[in-house]
Amino acid sequence: MSSELKSAVRPAAPATGGRRKLTYPWILLIIAGALVAVSALRAVSGATDLTSGGQFGAALSAAVPIGLAGLGGLWSERSGVINIGLEGMMMLGSFAAGWVGWQHGPWAAAAAGILGGALGGLVHAVATVTFGVDHIVSGVAINILALGATQYLATLWFGQEGSAAMAAGGNDKQSPPMSDMPTFTVPGLADWLNGIEGHHWFLVSDLAGVLGGAVTGVSWLTLLTVGLFVGTFFLLWRSSFGLRLRSCGEAPLSAETLGVNVYAYKYAAVLVSGALAGLGGAFLAISVHFYQDGQTGGRGYIGLATMIFGNWRPGGVALGAGLFGFMDAMQLRSGGPTVHALLLGLAALLAGLALVRLRAAKRAQAAVAAVAAAVLVVWYALSDSVPLELVEASPYLATLLVLALFSQRLRAPKAIGKPYRRGQGH
Amino acid sequence: GQSFAEANRAKHAGVGLAFDIGGRDDHSFNEAAARGTENARKQLGVKVKMLTAKNGETEADREQRLTSFAEAGYNPVIGVGFAYSQSVQNVAKDFPGTTFGVVDAVPTGKNVDAMVFAEHEGSYLAGVAAALKSKTHKVGFIGGVNNALIQKFQAGFEQGVRDTDPKAKVVSQYLYPNNDKGFNDPAAAKAKAQGMLDSGIDIIYSAAGQSGAGSIEAVSKVKGAWAIGVDSDQYRQPGLARYKDHILTSVVKNVDVAVFDLIKSCEQHKPLTGIHTYDLKHGGVSLATSGGFITDVQPQVDAARKKIIEGQVKVKETPKS
Amino acid sequence: MSTSTPTPTAKKNAAVDAVARSAARDKVLLGIAAPVLAIVAAIVISSLVFLASGENPFRAYGIMADYGHYSDSQVWIVNKAVPYYLSALAVAVGFRMNLFNIGVDGQYRLAAFAAAAVGGAVALPGALQIILLIVIAMLVGAVWSGIAGLLKTTRGVSEVITTIMLNSIAASVIGYFLQDGRLAVKDGNLLHTKFLPESSHFFSFPTHPKPVEGFVVVAVLAGAVYWFLINRTRFGFDLRAVGASEPAAEASGVSVKRMVVISMLLSGAAAGLVGMPTLLGESFQYGTDFPAGIGFTGIAIALLGRNHPAGMAFGALLWAFLDRTGSRLEFEGYAQEIVGVIQGVIVLCVVIAYEVVRRYGLRLQQRKVGEELAALARTGDGSADNSDKPEVTA
Amino acid sequence: MANHDIHLTVRRGTVHALCGENGAGKSTLMKILYGMQKPDEGTIALDGEQVALHSPGDAIARGIGMVHQHFMLADNLSVLENTVLGAEKLHGIGAGARAKIREISDAYGLNVRPDVLVEDLGVADRQRVEILKVLYRGARTLILDEPTAVLVPQEVDALFDNLRELKSEGLTVIFISHKLGEVLSVADDITVIRRGTTVASVEPAETTPKQLAELMVGSELPSPETRESTVTDEEMLRVQDVRLSATDAGGEVRTVLDGISFTIRKGEVLGVAGVEGNGQAELVEAVMGIRTPDGGTITLDGTDLSRSSTRARREGGIGYIPEDRHRHGLLLDAPLWENRILGHVTERPNSKGRLLDLAGARKDTERIVAEYDVRTPGIEVTAASLSGGNQQKLIVGREMSHHPKLLIAAHPTRGVDVGAQAQIWEQIRAARREGLAVLLISADLDELIGLSDTLRVMYRGRLVADADPAVITPEELGSAMTGAASGHLSASDDSADTAARGGDAQ
Ligand SMILES: Nc1ncnc2c1ncn2[C@@H]1O[C@H](COP(=O)(O)OP(=O)(O)OP(=O)(O)O)[C@@H](O)[C@H]1O
Ligand SMILES: Nc1ncnc2c1ncn2[C@@H]1O[C@H](COP(=O)(O)OP(=O)(O)OP(=O)(O)O)[C@@H](O)[C@H]1O
Ligand SMILES: [Mg+2]
Ligand SMILES: [Mg+2]
């Protein structure tokens, strides 16, 4: 029992350095600040694509599959089951979407993706919940199995000599193409925002760019994803179902003694987790119109990172996925020069950090930050692009950086990854 | 125990074709090679066996594949793609009686036929057409992976544009610096093309394998913009039928011709060996005309073609940096 | 302290012997049960997959078995298994203390690249060159995984995430340097580092028709070192203790943080070896076509072999055999991708079977101990009862 | 088999106490009543009607509520969330539930705030949350499994007031404890369980603690009492001005140890009393080197160990019996002989140089098993298959085998049956006679008072009081533990008599 009680120590007075909690007004303020900073950066560096509508539109669609994977991870881990099999579940999702999509269209593909991913979730649930296999081990096994299964089935279903699928353009590594997923553009508004964006006014045009990206040619699946994030928040944090599910990740034994069927909730969570990851995979297939071998490209792992990055909260996951999407879209759309502008932004950020650290009397840290900022400025001045490799690696570097700096503030569900057996509590 | 070769000695079994990772239906050079063997099957009556590479293969895997062909009596044995360069060279030594062919690479060996293509020359013509058709005088090139082969496409295209319209701007970008994923990521190509289109580029030439479908799709959404296809005549590909009205032309690499030539030479017991360059002159590369979208600029394209064939224009293989 | 012995010594010893014997028997039986269960399940499921896709599973198994029994196939298999085995060792070092080094993939590639770059630039005489390259590879692998170790111990970041990120970053680093004018040369359409000088070529066993790579010796040695280190040294005990229970290890005097860093370094060093058979025995340069993904295969094999050196050797050979038969199966008209399914099914079946058997074994033992003690107490009658409460003063 | 032939009848509107030695099967029986375990045979009748309880849900539906021996709370959820979990249908999970919680809290004087996180609560508060959880579900029958184990006497009194309140409302309470004084003071009926079976039902009014103890264990209870002092003048451990702060999950820095200083001499047992969570565990970990203090020195037998690693401290002669043997003392899945190596891997007979000496370790494990009466069929079985008491004996044997200069014993007899308890006490006493210094932490005040030569009280990270074990009573100690008294505690007039002192233990 003592281990549970350790945190109950209350001192005479809290010592130094109590930290402020991140409340929603604060978060909004931070986002607003970030927007101002980015538009300043855009104005200074002249990298107009930094805040263009096209950039944000692309960022949005790059963020969706990652965000869905991260949200899937959140469901599973909130119930206490680590899900490193997200990648495999995404593969199953994109495969199923490709398989159903070319015959029945994109909506059926999305549904199939959900089912395909859920199937992967089911396997994970059986292994971890019923058989008590280590979660990471099971996840790795699922990734291997999903890869093998999708590749094999693709040869049978898409690439069989003389089959209808092959005639429709399928092959061993790719499904036949499906029709377009409808998109929506808010008429009038989109053009108006586009017009404002064209003027490159400070802040106004940038805001127009962001909003324009959100109302121009957006896939309905993207909208669905936004709904899923909001829905997840309400379901997990504002309903009794969510309370029970989260209690399984925090204290399954307590939940059990209160009549919660922990197995059932873990199963449900892992199934939903797989379904969401599957939808993420389906989104990939639908947006390029076919399933393709290797399509997920590690996005399941990135999703996992955004979930940790987002502190196991939907808002955080969305933010993390948005960042990844933004970086991804930027490097794809305009490559080195735009990322080059970010050097300046990073330098400003580091300079700010140096000031804050200096005020907290942490000289060494302040000095390191200041030097790094100076190096970045010099680099920025002496070059007009950054190597493509650095751009490619930037999302991963950013994740490492964030985790290294803020991991202490992250809080995983308490019973995560721990084996749970019904009736074996003491 | 007994070795497999001893147990499975065979006579002439047919043509062995070993594909690169893309597989036989990659809408690209693997597919073209397959087409060549198909023609040989029809016209020469040879049997054909095809095997495909897996992701993450080693040299030994490829050698094993070629060896199993040779052991089973297939002749010629053809490796499609430069990945087979080293393995063909190694295996050819062990089977002097078998003719080996390889596409896109120049391994050495007495019994090896190296089939290489002048992609830069074909791309030059695409550059000419693009320069003439662009209304914004801004054209783009998307490479799948920044390697030597794809740089040939880029170099030729840029030179063609510049020689035709000195004012025109060419933006060349790669999806991945160094990752074969680049030939396999249409979503990335789509985003990249979108970015180019947003910046006013109206013609995009993609040399990115399967990823090209993504950029073609992005182009198809913009009125007045054109895509240029690669390797095969992409106007005619069933998977891209929906976008064919936006495919200006394609730089076609006639791998099928090369493969057919090799098979035929073997059937006639005069197997080709050494390096065979399939360039513009020998019909190894060409600019497709399906759809008739370049009919209006055909004279200029033909003129450029003639200059290259006659040696008046020398097309570079590496882009000016 | 010496209270009355609970039961007559002779009786107790007999009972103890019996228990020890039956415990040993159980251990062997259970040890066999898990893999047998897994393999049977995997065969059944794979057969169902074959049947569902309209193929005859027995013909396929026949082809596979036939392939496996030829001597040249066996050479292919052994050569393929060597990097797999080394990779599994690297993963297992982490697994033994509950560290998941998912980054073996990035580590060995970066390590092989560094070794290739150095090897292309210098030419030491004789064995020195090979030793230098192997040391460099192990160092680079260790440094790269050490980053994950440090981030875990100093910043509390899960190594699962960091190693995944580091894999991608390694690929970018290699990509940056593997360019014409940097550390690579252009060779036709390929980019690769300069060829290693003759002195860097590792020896091989001249088997017919293809040689067995000499690196198999290194793999066997590495396996032996791993076994000895883990099971016979103080360090190994500490490592296993951390794996079995981190808080208990900490309380016992093991510095868990130090162990995390050290074992990540060891794991990375072992990962550094993974690319060496290919570099020093096959390609002699690091190019864009250097094999990737062996790190992930290593995870699967470590799982199959339960981190045991012999088990992993079996796992590596099995995996290599399956890989190689894929090509044979394709030759015979099957889709070679079936191999991926079989491999996935085997891994999943193995992890489930081991867990089920482990849990059953634990329960069995607990019950046995309970029964045994109850029996002892019964035969020991009054004296046992008394000994419960020795020399009590009220 | 944990239970057989149990007969238990509880009248409505009474407090029914269940007592028995450790491992007698009390918890198991209650888990059966609560639907968490299935009985192999037998029946349960509620209000005369036979019921089948398959899950806690069934039990709750029938008005049975249980407060478990170990808290069943999710730290990262609020009191409200912990309370409504599983009973969301009753009053929702929002304002309605909050109002209801306030209502119940006021009605029974539980003083619970619904919106704080459980991790911010102390032990007694958590206990009340547990009771509130049960009442919230409208339970008419409450099972309390050793609710007093972690409470100080004053808190126990408050709890008993709550229980009487509940009884007067017509609720039935089943109350489990081995503290016989408590049992006699609060119960209306008493049932005694021994070795998994009911041996007697008695009336509290007609029973003495002595009789009850005999019923429980079949003989008299052992006492931890130490007779003659063996304290010498030679200083063994000196802890000076040790300070420690820790960052909690919310990122807040808290002072956990605040200027701790004390010395232990050879042959002395220093007992530290305190409600759990006041820094005793951290103190032990600081002395062991598991945590690095922010300041202060730790000197063992003249050697400054403040900067040494845990291993160096162990090699330097510190033996350690951790409070949570499963987490800190054993490798549960490893065989006994490997557990014998744990913590002493650098010492003989476990290793020679850098290599393990497996034969030596095995042989010595055999010796420990025999000498310390560890009940096991062999040394190859896993530690997990031993009972808790035998695991503890193995740990004690292991630590004693290296002849420590200082033994840190944290709750050495927690969850251990009386037989093993007596053995462990005897071993500590014997070693003390030979000059061992002991730092003893225990929640069992009788054990603490009985074994210690000197007593200190720890409160909110500070040593606030000291006392002479010869004259102090558990009640006085308890009030110091809650911070109500400090300085040197001297005996008050009426409580010095032995009857009150031994009240619980005898
Ligand atoms: N299913 C089972 N079969 C056999 N024995 C069991 C089973 N479950 C528990 N036991 C054993 O039965 C005994 C009774 O345990 P229980 O927890 O009920 O004791 P307790 O009286 O509550 O003791 P404590 O005072 O320590 O809380 C223990 O030795 C336990 O290991
Ligand atoms: N199914 C079973 N049948 C018989 N005996 C069992 C069974 N399961 C466990 N046991 C025995 O019960 C004991 C389990 O130990 P446990 O730690 O639960 O005991 P405990 O009651 O807590 O001991 P203590 O009172 O000493 O703390 C072991 O002796 C084990 O062999
Ligand atoms: Mg109990
Ligand atoms: Mg117990």
From TrEMBL, chain A:
Protein name per its UniProtKB record: ABC transporter permease
Highest classification ranks of the organism: Bacteria, Bacillati, Actinomycetota, Actinomycetes, Kitasatosporales
Source taxon at top rank: Bacteria
Keywords: Cell membrane, Membrane, Transmembrane, Transmembrane helix
Keyword Transmembrane helix (UniProt): yes
Location, primary (coarse class): membrane
The keyword Transmembrane is assigned to this record: yes
Entries under InterPro entries matching the protein: ABC_transp_permease (IPR001851)
Species per Swiss-Prot/TrEMBL record: Streptomyces lunalinharesii
Membrane-spanning parts: 24-44, 56-75, 81-100, 107-130, 136-158, 210-237, 267-290, 339-358, 365-382, 394-412
Subcellular location as annotated: Cell membrane
PANTHER family: GUANOSINE ABC TRANSPORTER PERMEASE PROTEIN NUPQ, SUGAR ABC TRANSPORTER INTEGRAL MEMBRANE PROTEIN-RELATED
Membrane topology: Multi-pass membrane protein
One Pfam entry name: BPD_transp_2
UniProtKB/TrEMBL annotation, chain C:
Keyword tags: Cell membrane, Membrane, Transmembrane, Transmembrane helix
Stored InterPro entries: ABC_transp_permease
Species name: Streptomyces lunalinharesii
Bilayer disposition of the protein: Multi-pass membrane protein
Origin superkingdom: Bacteria
Location within or outside the cell: Cell membrane
ATP-binding among keywords: no
Protein name: ABC transporter permease
Entry's transmembrane regions: 28-53, 73-95, 107-124, 130-151, 160-178, 212-230, 260-280, 338-357
Automatic annotation (TrEMBL), chain D:
Pfam families: ABC_tran (PF00005)
PROSITE patterns: ABC_TRANSPORTER_1, ABC_TRANSPORTER_2
InterPro entries in alphabetical order: AAA+_ATPase, ABC_carbohydrate_import_ATPase, ABC_transporter-like_ATP-bd, ABC_transporter-like_CS, P-loop_NTPase
Region Disordered, residue ranges: 482-506
Cross-referenced Gene3D superfamilies: P-loop containing nucleotide triphosphate hydrolases (3.40.50.300)
Superkingdom of the organism of origin: Bacteria
SUPFAM superfamilies, A to Z: P-loop containing nucleoside triphosphate hydrolases
GO MF, any single term: ATP binding
Residue spans of biased composition, Low complexity class: 490-506
Keywords: ATP-binding, Nucleotide-binding, Repeat, Transport
Domain spans labelled ABC transporter: 1-220, 237-485
Protein's recorded name: ABC transporter ATP-binding protein
Classification of source organism: Bacteria, Bacillati, Actinomycetota, Actinomycetes, Kitasatosporales
